[in-house]
Amino acid sequence: MTPLSWHDWVPYLEDRGYRVIAPAWPRMDRPIEELRADPSLVGGLGITEITDHHAELISRLDTAPIIMGHSVGGLVTQLLLDRGLGAAGVAIHPGQTKGVFRVPPAQLRSALPAIGNPFNLNRGVPLTPGQFHWGFANALSEEDSREAWSAYHVPAPARPLFQAALANLNPRAVTRVDYSRADRAPLLFVAGDADRTVPASVVRENHRRYKSGIAHYMEFPGRSHFTVGETGWEEVVGRALEWAVAHSAGTRSGS
User: Fold this and answer.
1) Which of 40-77 are b and which e, b meaning 16 or more Cβ less than 10 Å from the residue's Cβ?
2) Measuring CA to CA, which of 32, 37, 93, 229 is 20 to 30 A from 6?
3) Are strands 66-70 and 156-157 parallel, antiparallel or unpaired?
C-alpha cells in the first residue's frame, strides 16, 4: 500500500495536536495508477533501503518521533528503534525480525503470491482481488474488500518478503535486531486474531524475543491485516496512541 492507507489515522492524530508524517517508501511516491501500471518501479526494493529512507527523514526532525508502522512497516519500526531512533514505537501486525521461527500455514499461503516464485525476488508483485481478500482483508465482506483493493492496493516489492522468510538461514540477515538492548525506545506490538498475513501467534513470538527494555503486547479480536482501514480502526489508533504517549514522555512530533 501507499500512504493513502493512513487517510483515517492522519486526521485523527492531527486533531489531537500531533504533527503527522506519513512518508512513502522509496520509489513509491507516485500515484497509485502509475504504480499499478508498472510494477517494475518497485522491483528490488529491500528492507535496508526502506529503513535507511525513514532513518534519514527522522534525522531531520527536531524531536524524537513516535514511530508507527504496519506490516513490513512494523518490521521497519523495530529496525529503526534498534538504531536508537524514536521516542516510542508501535509495530502494527509487524513482519517478524530474525529469530522468530513461527510460520503458520495461513501466513505461508498469504505470502505465496510473492515468494512462491523465486524469480519474483527483484519484481513488484500485485495481488488479485481474491488474494487480497483472503490474506489481507478477510474480516471484510467480499464487496468491501474489493473496494479497499481498488482504493489502496499497489504492486509490492517481493524482496522484503524473501528477506524476512530467509532471515533465520542468513547470519547477516537485514532483519536482525538486538533483543537485549536496554536503551531501546519503548515498543508496542499490536496484533489481530483474524490476521492471516501476520497471525497473532507470530506477533506474540516476536514480542517474547525482546529480553530487555520496554516491550508490550496488545491484541484486538476480529481484526485482519487491514486493521488500519477496517471498521473499528479508531480503537486501534486510540489505544496505540495512549500507550505511546504514556511511554514516550509526551512527545508532540509523530511519524
Assistant:
1) ebbbebbbebbbebbbeebeebeebbbbbbbbbbbbbb
2) 37
3) unpaired
> Which residue ranges of the chain lie beneath pLDDT 50?
250-255
Q: For the chain, what percent of residues have pLDDT higher than 90?
A: 97
Report helix, strand or coil for 1. Answer: coil
191's grid cell: 496484533
Backbone phi, psi, residue 95, to 5°: -60, 145
The DSSP symbol for 218 reads E
Phi, psi of 200 (to 5 degrees): -60, -35
- The predicted pLDDT at position 124 comes to 97
Quick one: fold of 3-254? Rossmann fold (3.40.50)
Whether pTM exceeds 0.70: yes
E strand map for the chain:
19-20, 66-70, 88-92, 124-125, 156-157, 187-192, 215-220, 253-254
How many C-beta neighbours within 10 Å does residue 179 have? 19
